[in-house]
Amino acid sequence: MVQLEAHPLLDAKFFVTTFPRPLGELGRVEAVCALLSTTAAAPVSADDAVRSAIRDLLRHGGYKPTGRGKPASEYLVRAVTEGALGSINAAVDACNVVSLHSGLPISVVDLSLATPPFRVAVAPEGSAYVFNQGGQTIDLGGLLCLFDAVGPCANAVKDSQRTKTTPQTTRTLSVLWGTSALPGRAQAAAAWYRALLESNGARTEDA
Questions:
Q1: N or C: which end of the chain has fewer CB within 10 A?
Q2: 207, 119 contact by CB (below 8 A)
Q3: What are the domain boundaries of the chain?
Q4: Position 1 pLDDT exceeds 90
């Protein structure tokens, strides 16, 4: 389902999730939200070595993963520590839990808003997209991105507003932005992520 451009460090994992009802009808999953804490028990945990390896992954194409352009997984740690991260929906909450504890950035794309085929490649200089409802944009030059037929739609820093989940979402594509410098971590994180979703009635399948 996803074509990968050759990359010396990327160890990405992909899977598709089908939810039993639209996300807006599923509501908050308390068991998942309870894990949105840096002190919650989890099968994986992150440290400075993980953060450094993810930054190296993003640097390879020429991107600078610092300041406002740092990996999304680092933003999560800060948001949780400051008590600024609330529940969004069943898909994003599970994503945030796994990203928080594994240290891996994760993208979630609404498959009804994206257009196949999909590929992962380094975005060319000058490319950008809107990443929030306020219309703010991110410069994608040199950054590993997921592309659909329209253009880039997700990455390890900020996903595109164009393909983000909505209350009507029923089917998503998840991308775990892992690195070969952390062997086995992306696979372990993906297995836990899928188990969390399936324990709450969703169905997952390899992409």
A1: N
A2: no
A3: 2-206
A4: no
The tokens describing 170, both together, are 């029923």
Quick check: 198 and 37 in contact, CB under 8 A?
no
Instruction: Spell out a b/e string for 73-98, using b for 16 or more CB atoms within 10 Å of the CB, else e.
Output: bbbbbeebeeeebeebbbbbbbbbbb
- Over residues 48-73, the mean pLDDT reads 96
CA angle 95, 116, 55 (to 5 degrees): 45
> Which candidate, 51, 172, 151, places its Cα nearest to that of 105?
51
Fold assignment, 2-206: Phenylalanyl-tRNA Synthetase; Chain B, domain 3 (3.50.40)
What is the tens place of the pLDDT at every residue in 94-133?
999 999 999 999 999 999 999 999 999 999 999 999 999 9
Residue type present at position 73: S
What token pair was written down for 96? 């945030």
